[in-house]
Amino acid sequence: MSKWTGKSKGTPLGYRIFIALIKVDVRLAYALLKPVSFFYLIFSNKESISYFYRERLKYGKLKTMVSIYKNYVFLGKVLIDKIAILSGQKDQYTFNFDGEEHLHQMVKDKKGGLLLGAHMGNWEVAGELLERVDSVINILMVEAEHQKLKDVLQEAIGDKKVNVIPIKDDMSHIFSVIEAFKNKELVAMHGDRFVEGNQTVKIPFLGEMAEFPIGPMVLASKYSIPVTFVFSVKETNTHYHFFATKGKVYPKERKPALRDESIKVMLTDYVNQLQLKVEKYPLQWFNYHPFWENEKK
Predict the structure, then answer these.
(1) Other C-beta atoms within 10 Å of 52: how many?
(2) Would residue 164 be called left, alpha or beta, if left means φ above 0 and alpha means ψ between -120 and 50 degrees?
(3) Residue (of 100, 151, 108) closest to 125 by Cα position
(4) Which residues fall within 8 angstroms of residue 104, CB to CB, at 6 or more apart?
(5) Mean pLDDT in the chain?
(6) CA trace torsion 162, 164, 165, 167 (10° rounding)
(7) Longest CA–CA separation in the chain, Å
(8) Which end of the chain is more exposed for a tag (fewer CB within 10 A), N or C?
């Protein structure tokens, strides 16, 4: 599998154009997405996203191309909404929070928690929810994302204490995660992508073996930290829906075989939830990198 670095392809000029339009009216920025998305449909590397729709969801050629285009449009709208929300225009949007009580219960129990999400929907929706959760929040992300998003995430979550933990090649970020768990804090991360060097396990996903990172899961089990699976999706132009499962503590096993089995159960639970969401919202899973074992390299 090719190495993923976490770097996005947007240019500074492109961002400035969209930001200028957003300040006038979000709908103007949405309108510009159509030609931009068509440009990417023609000229971008579509191998991985094509494989997802064609081979895993069994779409035909025409439906695959239409779905890729709509996926690009959705991604653009999510990015526009992100800027709009961060710039103080969140009153234009409405939100549903299913499972919010589970996060509050984690804080109340003072055990900390691992919030395991995915590259779908809009993280800033989670930021809206986290404003109401009284806990230190540690956000784990690749260093390329960390450099771009540290300040805006701080702005999104306001005066709540947020700590962005950049994923390092030398794996030193693991010590920060351990410290957060020892302090009974929340750690949020995506579980559907890894960078080279991560500890991973292969498991069936949409009918084919795929590789998922397990490092934070191992630590959550070791320190008896409850784990919740969280997802946020865009249901209309102005409405988002957040989902969180009930926190679950997975057994801490001393024997390697039992420990591996416990981690596999945790990963299977996550992948089952991810598959349900991907199947229901197939246009909002933003994966543009080789993911499955038999995907062409």
Answers:
(1) 24
(2) beta
(3) 100
(4) 133
(5) 82
(6) 160
(7) 60
(8) C
Q: Is 148 exposed, middle or buried (0-12, 13-18, 19+ CB in 10 A)?
A: middle
- Residue 103 is which amino acid? L
Q: Which two three-digit tokens encode residue 253?
A: 């096993």
- Give the bridge partners for 236, in sequence order: 239
DSSP letter at 237 equals T
Average pLDDT on 62-66 reads 97
Nearest to 96 by CA among 212, 192, 235: 235
CA distance 75 to 64: 16
Across 235-274, b (16+ Cβ under 10 Å) vs e yields eeeeebbbbbbebeebeeeeeeeebeebbeebbebbbebb
pLDDT in tens, 111-128: 899 999 999 988 666 666
Q: How far apart are CA 221 and CA 259, in angstroms?
A: 9
Strand ranges for the chain from DSSP E: 94-98, 113-117, 137-142, 162-167, 186-190, 200-205, 208-213, 227-236, 239-244
DSSP letter assigned to residue 280: H
